[in-house]
Write a structure and sequence with these properties.
The protein is mainly α and 47 residues long. It has one domain (2-46). Helices cover 87% and strands 0% of the residues. It has helices at residues 2-16, 21-46. The radius of gyration is 13 Å and the shape is elongated. The protein starts with a helix and ends with a helix.
Length: 47
């Protein structure tokens, strides 16, 4: 739920300013990877 809201906001930002698109996507993908890794490690420790 929260991720969909974030992605929606990012898409709106990308539509407004396409010049920063590639830079923003790189930052977002790094952020998502870090978040996914943290989430997976937490899930492993909880289970």
């Amino acid at each position: 739920m929260r991720n969909s809201l974030i992605s929606r906001e990012i898409k709106l930002l990308l539509r407004k300013n396409k010049g920063l698109r590639s830079q923003l996507q790189n930052q977002v993908t790094l952020y998502i990877r870090k978040g996914a890794i943290a989430f997976i490690t937490k899930a492993k420790y909880l289970n």
